Amino acid sequence: MTIPAISVAMSVYNGERFLAESIESVLAQGFGDFEFLILDDGSRDATPDIVHHYADRDSRIRPIIRENRGLIASLNEMLARARAPIIARMDADDICRPQRFEKQIAFLADHPDYGVVGTWTEDIDEAGAPYSLSGNDHPTSHEGFLRAIETGSPLICHPAAMFRREVVRSVGDYHAAFRHCEDYDLWLRLASVTKLCSIPERLMRYRHYENQVSSRHATEQQIGAAVSYLAYRERLAGRPDPTANLERLPPIDELDALFGREGIARQVRARVAPGLLYSRASLRDDGFDLLCRYLREGGRRDGMWRVVARLVRFGEPVRAARLAATLAMG
């Protein structure tokens, strides 16, 4: 069989709502030399039927239908099965602009020292309408990427990423310990072996909605990202990465032992807590206890009384009272 230029990797779980539109945006790419791996990760809705429907119409689609194993296992399976030297990530709820693949593969051809290239995004809501989002765009140079790591700015939009398969495989693929932030951890590991950036064009329509993974698992995602950053700092300092062979991250209070020195758990809480203040999901799950612990450890209290009021609006009066008591303790 002829080897395609690109392997598109899409994992989907119960994604019937937006899947057809996402698939069609890939099939409509101006650059058409690709295979399209769509892995159904044990869906219980109409996802498998939709995948088979499009596979019957377009021979570039390689459907993989199996039981549920989770996103990281699915991503690594597609990396192993891909035939092309270049991988284009895609999620089942986003939409590619028609020029996405041709722009990204041209960038990689012109910049052999870059292993990963993303794109800027156009943010949309569940209905496809503009979604207002403040913050920086993704960095457009490797130097900007390294600065973004230190400032906590966005790095690369995962479903908009295109990368060299061999470079990702050389660092051990996606790591199982970093559920819900597996892309952030991968970018940090790649930063020491290749260059990464994004094209300053909005070639991906990135969807935001209440039930997406980043909303449902916000606290776990931010804790994992904080641990991944500290592992990155260990590697920069020439020390072994204590997370390298983990299947799952330990509880925060066990991180001092994992890293072999005191203060790591406290650093993680300090890095995570400010990002939880506006998240309804985080203030309703374990993120609330993390926030209270952070305050008891002397964390900054700016704006915390507004969080008390926010909890009342979220219908959490007991947690509002607990946070108020923590703040009153001084």
Automatic annotation (TrEMBL):
Entry-linked Pfam families: Glycos_transf_2 (PF00535)
Enzyme class label: transferase
Keywords attached to this entry: Glycosyltransferase, Transferase
Record-listed E.C. numbers: 2.4.-.-
One Gene Ontology term of the molecular function aspect: glycosyltransferase activity
Transmembrane segments: none
InterPro entries: Glyco_trans_2-like, Nucleotide-diphossugar_trans
Domain Glycosyltransferase 2-like: 7-171
Organism annotation: Novosphingobium album (ex Liu et al. 2023)
PANTHER family: GLYCOSYLTRANSFERASE, UDP-GLCNAC:BETAGAL BETA-1,3-N-ACETYLGLUCOSAMINYLTRANSFERASE-LIKE PROTEIN 1
Domain of life where this protein originates: Bacteria
Keyword rRNA-binding applies: no
Protein name per the record: Glycosyltransferase
